Amino acid sequence: MESKARYFVILGALSAALAVALGAFGAHALADRLSPGMQAIYRTAVLYHLFHAIGLFAVAFVCSLPKANRLACVSGWLMAAGTGLFCGSLYLLSITGIRWLGAPTPLGGIAMIAAWLLLAWAVLHNN
Predict the structure, then answer these.
(1) pLDDT at residue 68, rounded to an integer
(2) Average pLDDT of each block of 10 consecutive residues along the chain (127 residues)?
(3) CB 46 within 8 A of CB 22
(4) How far is C-alpha 69 from the chain's CA centre?
């Protein structure tokens, strides 16, 4: 496996493990501490975290293609950054209740969307 693909497999696996751990933490340790609205925000963070952890495996696959281009790797880093910004800000918002901590959420969402679009572009131009 090419080294760039390897990084995204490792990053995806670590991200998935963290998402599962944070999901369990939210379901057990925070269940009685968060309002229903904050629980919903927390669950959204876990869901998007898991989807994008799996997305990093898709990035690794595309990066391992014989004629993989640089765009695939850029999409992976955007996906990782988007996950940190989007999910991280939602985790913090839901746990602390401090509304301004949700400010980076849209930036993370934009990075996630851009990552998926860039990944599609990379595959379309892999010839």
Answers:
(1) 78
(2) 86 98 96 94 98 97 86 95 98 94 95 97 84
(3) yes
(4) 21
The letter for the amino acid at 90 is L
CA angle 70, 113, 48 (to 5 degrees): 110
Report if pTM > 0.70: yes
CA distance 88 to 74: 20
Confirm if 109 and 86 have CB atoms less than 8 A apart: yes
Backbone angles phi, psi at 29, to 5 degrees: -75, -30
Give residue 68's region: left, alpha or beta (phi > 0; psi -120 to 50): beta
CA distance 11 to 94: 25
SS3 127: coil
First CA to last CA distance, the chain:
19
Q: How far apart are CA 91 and CA 111, in angstroms?
A: 17
Whether 47 and 55 have beta carbons less than 8 Å apart is answered as no
Round to whole Å and give the CA distance between 90 and 126: 35
Q: How many residues does the chain have?
A: 127
